[in-house]
Amino acid sequence: MTKDKIPLLEMRDITKRFPGVLANDRINFRVHEGEIHSLLGENGAGKSTLMNILYGLVAPDSGKILIRGKEARIHSPLDAIDKGIGMVHQHFMLVDRLSVVENVVIGTRPPGYPVFRKETAVERVSRLIKEYGFEIDPLSPVHLLSVGQQQRVEIIKALYRGADLLILDEPTAVLTPSEVIELFRLLQNLRQAGHGIIFITHKLNETLEISDEITVIRQGRVVDTVLPQNIDRAGLASLMVGRNVLFDLPHPVFEREQRVILDIQDLKVVDDRKIETVKGVSIQVRNGEIFGVAGVDGNGQRELVEAMTGLRQCASGSIIIDGVEVTGKSPGEILAQGVAHIPEDRQVRGLVMGFRIDENLILHDFNKPPFTRRGFLQHKEIYRWASQRARDFDIRPPEPRLKAQQLSGGNQQKVVLARELAKQPRLIIAVQPTRGLDVGATEYVHRKLMEARSDNAAILLVSTELEEVLSLSDIVAVMYEGRIVGTMARDEIDIGKIGLLMGGGHVD
């Protein structure tokens, strides 16, 4: 990487206010040609606002954006693309039934416009694929590609439109370990070709591995810009949250008689398309144990959890919770068996976003004493109870009358945790419990799950974050294409084997 006197991108004194929030406070940020520059910060620190300003989705209140030393006025994504800025979102924007080349050229004026000359378009896209080493068939339909290959299509789309600067938003969130290695190889190729890359992630190890420079934002301000060789993961976490963060929580082995709390036998489940996505899964989870299910998103985990929690009917098989058959029961009947459910999407399944914090905290028990007497809600009792939960679970701000939609993602998750864990459940089904959370909120969620384990709860942890599964679990199972393809005890864990199983490989 060569540091030119004039950066590829310079953002000077960028300030943006929203009602009651100073999202960006005189932020200065630079990216040079041939540089991978990571942007770190907690949820709500101001990263997204800064990138939305750069990509023309939000207008700054003050400050300047310079591209190669010249001031650029960016009022829309079209302006950003015209200035050589491309953005690859965490959730891909592809048309499944179209081919790679058709997805790349869609929305542009392809060669020969207004006539679409497919051969010429294929030639141009193939040239890009070969130049950067993408190793993908330009004629393949997108729905036949792996998640990692689909991500490459998004990057090719940006390059096809002339992007010199790429913004990658949480690019490894949905990838297997082998796909992450492949992505990093491609990013190295792009860097060597002179492209600037802004890399946004919560994964500190990856940040240290891939970055040339790292800028940390906290509460809307740049805290520091550091070189990866001069800092470690603990140092980055401390810069992000303003305190020391504990990564490796104690994982004691308890001497006690364990009994099976969750017993799933030969479970088969179909999705909304009537396709079988859970194919004969059998799982046993004991009290005082965390059973982790690893795997790339979309391999039947969602349907498995929906069947366990009564949100989807089973095609066949059985689900027994602490000796009671619950197959085909309603969500309410299953929760009544002492089950807590931390759902995959806190905003869709976990909370009613328009309800207040206290209303969300009593969703399961609003019609029971002490919250209801003679058919009337007891608002003082609800407020008192909710205030105590807000203090116990560090919900910020701790005002029960605030609506859920007014909280950050991390604090919304704490509301879900407070409701589900306060009833001291026998079984906790935790699905992607830290998805989208920063390092501080992630540490908090992990600590609460370990406390529940210490209190003898059985925990089924379903997560695409392999590091999370490995750090918390007593037993790790890998799910691929609707089946459990491998199971390892904590002292037998082999990351290489797990990564191979997640990608569909076979282990002797």
Describe this structure in words.
The strands form 5 sheets. The chain has a 6-stranded mixed sheet with strand order 6-7-8-3-9-10, with helices on both faces. The protein has helices at 47-54, 77-82, 100-105, 118-132, 147-160, 177-192, 204-210, 233-241, 301-308, 331-335, 346-350, 357-361, 379-392, 409-421, 439-454, 466-472, 495-502; strands spanning 9-18, 21-31, 36-41, 62-67, 70-71, 85-88, 165-169, 196-200, 213-218, 221-226, 260-270, 276-286, 289-294, 316-321, 324-325, 339-342, 372-373, 376-377, 427-431, 458-462, 475-480, 483-489. It has 17 helices and 22 strands. The model has no long low-confidence stretch (mean pLDDT 89). The chain has 508 residues and is α/β, with parallel strands linked by helices. Helix 14 packs parallel to helix 15.
List its traits.
alpha/beta, 6-stranded mixed beta sheet
* Strand proportion: 25-35%
Shape: globular
The order of strands across the largest sheet is 6-7-8-3-9-10
Helicity range: 25-40%
Q: Uncertain spans, ≥5 residues at pLDDT below 50?
A: none
Query: What's the number of helices?
Result: 17
Please count the beta strands (DSSP E, at least 2 residues each).
22
Instruction: Find the structural class using helix and strand composition.
Output: alpha/beta
In round numbers, the mean pLDDT is 89
* Alpha carbon gap, first and last residue: 43 Å
Radius of gyration: 24 Å
Largest sheet: 6 strands, mixed
